Amino acid sequence: MPAAATSKEKKAAAPRARRTASAAKTKLFVLDTNVLMHDPTSLYRFEEHDIYVPIMTLEELDNNKKGMSEVARNARQASRMMDEIVSSCLDKMEAGIPLKEPSHDLATGKLFLQTEAINVTLPAALPTAKGDNQILAVVMFLAERFPGRAVILVSKDINMRIKARALGLDAQDYFNDKVLEDTDLLYTGTRELPADFWETHGKGMESWKTEGRTLYRLKGPLAPNLLINEFLYQDGETPLEAWVKEKTGRTVVIETLIDYSHQKNNVWGITSRNREQNFALNLLMNPEIDFVTLLGQAGTGKTLLTLAAGLTQVLETKRYSEIIMTRVTVPVGEDIGFLPGTEEEKMAPWMGALEDNLDVLNGTTGEGGDWGRAATRDLIRSRIKIKSLNFMRGRTFINKFLIIDEAQNLTPKQMKTLITRAGPGTKVVCLGNIAQIDTPYLTEGSSGLTFAVDRFKGWPHSGHVTLQRGERSRLADHAAEVL
């Protein structure tokens, strides 16, 4: 969903020399440089509308193409895409280059490049030497040339959009990168069953037991809406906690959960303290689940539960050979500068959360006194490797338990790079809180973590839980609510 925020506002457009009835309906979108540097494929995201690229946008792309940063890579990619489009139809520059063929039917509008010098008198307060103001001049010129057509500036720059509106021009943000408009609609992985669930779904129900867990085959009005590995719960006289294991049309198979709140099922000495933590441990301990995402505010137990499950499966059941932990190194305040040492030593200051949780987990063993705890700690640390994101490209992790902490600071592209590192027998766990994004230019709607949660829901080998209740301390819970 590109430029406009609503689905009614269909996106994309640029001018046509001859105005027809259809041209008046389609819009003309003028692209600011930051849109192309943010998403090079934005050229194909405007459906039936036309797009217009001013000369100043090309100049700014050229100025930003050098370097190894994400922005420089995107600038080069955008230039290459435009070169492919333009070189296919050099004779149609004036009339617009059709995007239908190069976009493989994703877009049916035309691409227009600025082919003439444009002189528009801007207000004296706007110096024409500035690139942004030259792009605004192009938008003003097009609005005057095509009075019956919607000419809209698309920009990620808030101040640019404010200036455009102050000049009486239409301006919109570029929304195509947002997975969801409203993060309240993000899949939580859990669903409360209505009170009459068994009455409406119990007809023709089958039930059987496997390895101490009960399975039910049901059909009913709610069944088509359920997703595989979605957790279901019902409070009352006969409480139920189960998850969806199979789904075919209007029939689902649900299975009761292992109760990790009971001490006999403890994971490295840790038991679940609430319903969502129990759901999370069922995902983390299940060998059939390859990808787990855990969302939740500070203190909900994301890292502790994940490390406990990882240590149990590395040191006790030997399911994985080691734990690999990584996180995005984005400082909350000012950067502290150069860090000496090896890759692991450089990452150590970012891994305070790991050390804190290991202290808790090491205390749960409770045997052997100080010597025993020190030996256990050394054993645990020998099986946990800390890696930097910067050196992940091209690697393959086989039989590893990979934890990606603070995943809300990843872009969708970085998230894809990390998840595709997983080789045979590897489990990937993403942890994060989308309310605490420290990366500039990322929002709750465009975070890689939101992207992964939305795209993986319903896949039989992945699961997601949004942890609701903080279990850190009464002070931390109150602070999370009121601050």
From TrEMBL:
SUPFAM superfamilies: P-loop containing nucleoside triphosphate hydrolases, PIN domain-like. Residues 27-162 form the PIN domain. The lineage of its organism: Bacteria, Pseudomonadati, Pseudomonadota, Betaproteobacteria, Rhodocyclales. GO terms for molecular function: ATP binding. In the N-terminal section; belongs to the PINc/VapC protein family. This is PhoH-like ATPase. The keyword Iron-sulfur does not apply. CDD domains: PIN_VapC_PhoHL-ATPase (cd09883). One of its GO terms (cellular component) is cytosol. The keyword ATP-binding applies. It comes from Azoarcus indigens. Keywords: ATP-binding, Nucleotide-binding. Pfam families: PhoH (PF02562), PIN_4 (PF13638). Gene3D superfamilies: 5'-nuclease, P-loop containing nucleotide triphosphate hydrolases. InterPro entries: P-loop_NTPase, PhoH, PhoH2-like, PIN-like_dom_sf, PIN_dom.
